[in-house]
Design goal:
about 120 residues; mainly alpha; single chain
Length: about 120
């Protein structure tokens, strides 16, 4: 457990404050502090709704999207390049959909970097 916390802290430092990746790592560190691996697993298994407190209210999600717009767009473009067009199955507004997609993709990348088998 302690090893994961230390790795998350190191990754945050490398990401740099003000990046979307830093925001995701910070969210994992704060909301998953009791069990980081379980928190990451929950996000990747069940998605954002009900799992990520920082992404609960539409107004907060839109502020996050606006703040990290460039990073989020880059992540969404990479996902589209890899998988083709991504379907918005839940008919979410674009800011919410892209923020959720980018958050989940970033968590997936972090899980891989941490060597988690999820």
């Amino acid at each position: 457990m302690r090893g994961l916390k230390a790795k998350i802290k190191r990754m945050k430092k490398e990401a740099g404050r003000g990046t979307f990746r830093w925001f995701v790592l910070n969210t994992i560190e704060k909301e998953g502090s009791d069990n980081i691996e379980s928190y990451i697993s929950d996000v990747l298994t069940y998605g954002i709704n009900g799992t990520v407190g920082a992404l609960t209210y539409t107004s907060d999600i839109h502020k996050i999207f606006d703040r990290y717009y460039s990073d989020i767009e880059d992540i969404v473009d990479e996902v589209k390049e890899e998988f083709g067009e991504v379907e918005n199955r839940y008919d979410l507004d674009v800011k919410t959909f892209y923020t959720f997609l980018a958050f989940e993709e970033t968590v997936r990348e972090i899980a891989e970097e941490l060597g988690l088998d999820i």
